[in-house]
Amino acid sequence: MPRDEAATIVATEPGANPAPAPEARLSIVPARKDLADILLRPASVAVIGAGNEPGDARGRALHLLRQYDFRGHVYPVSASRRLVQGTHAWPALSALPGPADQALILLEGDAAIDAVEACGRARIPLAVIHDPLDGDDETRRARRERLIEAGRHHDIRILGPGSAGLVIPARDLALTTDPAFAARRPRDGRLMVLAAGASAMGTLFSRGAARELGFAGLVSLGEEIDLSAGEIGEIAAADPDIDAFVLFLGGLHRSATLARFAAAAHAAGKPIVAYRLRRHPAAAAHSKAAEAAADGFLAAHGIVRVDQFETLLDLAPMLVRRRPARGRTAAIVSADECAGAMVADRLMASGVAIDGLDDLARERLAHGGVALPDGRVADLSAVPRPEALRAVLDEALDAPNNDAVLAVLGTAAALDAGAATAPLIAAAQRADKPLAALLMADAPEALRLLSEAGIAAFRAPETAADGVRAFLQWTAPAALAPLLDNEAPRGPVRALHAGQAMQIFRMLGITIPTMFWLKRDTEPPKSMPFPPPYVVKVLSPHIRHPADIGGIALGIETVSGLHHAIETVTVNAAAAEPDAYLDGVAIQRLERGLAEVAIRFERDPEVGPVVTLAMGEGMEETYGDRAVRLAPIDRAGAYAMIDEVRGLVQLRGYRNRAPGDLEALAQALVAMSSFALISAPRVLAAAVDPLLVRGEGQGILALDGWMRTE
Fold first, then answer.
1. pTM for the whole thing?
2. Residues near 14 by Cβ (< 8 Å), separated by ≥ 6?
3. N or C: which end of the chain has fewer CB within 10 A?
4. Domain range holding 334?
5. pLDDT tens, 603-659?
6. Cis (ω within 30 of 0) for the bond into 690?
7. Structural domain includes residue 50
């Protein structure tokens, strides 16, 4: 039996006629391998459409397989050549002398899909499609449907299309067309890279190799038509040779599988750090909210998100074999005064506290001959001696109030890398607290020494601040399992205006004001059951924000004034939205409180149900000040959202102001998030905007809102 090949023996049925040839009495059917073995430990690969020129994309894959001396079998397949790059080629997959675990398809368009079907007939379990599905929209759609059907019909998994392939250094496998792997061979390591698109895999490898990082594997995901980052990651999370994951995400494709991957990785103690491309660079208000929802998804599942691409690889060593920090306080020990100040400024702007050494620590250092100037940063620029740096690092790492320590090395690291990095390496070996470094000089030898010691090393103040911020904001997966319900509406969508939606909010326990609903074509009232001042607003399922079109009138003191206001808001709405159905007007009492906020629930198409808290009356769009969480949330999650919105500082008694009723606001957030649990009818989106927050103990009041349901 060939190496690494399992087999199942299928005997003939009892009573069946004997076959004339002895070898026909048994059927040898190769057993299907586990997908983990197929992906990470392939025994043989086929290259379909292999080119004869090693330097071009079609020929590079075969050239790299030979250059790396892949341990398994390599089968070039070419319909037009019997020799490819001096190696025997087979005319078709049916002619191969043995099974293949993977096939890299270097054909275009319909020919690539034909090759997938041929892989299925040849029982090749994984097809890697190099070229994207080109063509106009109709052609692409037809090819996509045909490709998905081919995979389903033949029970074959597909990586791509638009995938540059995959590289497994421990197996000497480079099944890729990316030229980065021809320029330099990857080191075997314990870091797994999953990269969307075609080019990001090679870019990450090239940058990681310059940092002396080793890799357990690198996978180019392409368009993720079948295999996604989540499914591959979940498989790899069980691999004992992988310590951490680096993700380059184009979007949150198949968020349910990404959530399972995150849970499996967290259970195995393997951190995930991700950089995500923004979906809508133009950034309309809704797009910004969608981006916040995606960021909230990553945070809820314990995935560390970085803002800068350069940070992605720099941060990884800081996460390995660690759990999220308990607090958000960092210490900076700097041999470069300006660099230390730059990092401190950026960290404090992102909500990270910088806590300098306490008086006792400074006194101990002074007794040892290390006098530090006052300030949040432990500035060693006046005494840049290695022994002084080691002493200050020990104090910073031992301080119970610090959750992470960043050491900033100056230009001396370029002159004597060993002396400059020795204090960091020694301090890191004795401490269980994360220690990272910022190298301000171009010091490749110092970078290599720190990398070998497993110390995260950044090369710019911006990436250092981004990395430390990301580490300190890292959280464990949410205790409440988020509901990954991101299905499109299953039927007609019904829109509810404020008069209808507010009754549902009231059933959730959210207080609403007394409201007089005057239906269309109804005479205005001659008296009101509650005193002035009044508010009049038009009611229409097609108008979410009446204030934007002059559909609200405020501060009306008399009943006669109500008649004029009703006519005015109705005329304004009809002029601004002539096709909108006007269902009358609502008359409420004008209420006052400490602040107005907006709470919104929606089902994001990528991440599922989310709840958003922001300042009310358009302030979210103006300042981008919001907090987003996957729904449902609990009381602790609601308070965390309140703390995150900077504009709500006034409700926490800022500058001796009267505090707001945060408990009532938290309960309203939990209530709105519970729409995620309602399945019939399914609430697609809902908003209370504005929600009036009153003084402590006085509650909240929903002043306006809307809803969409199935």
1. 0.84
2. none
3. N
4. 324-472
5. 988 888 999 999 886 666 666 788 999 999 999 999 999 999 988 988 888 777 889
6. yes
7. yes
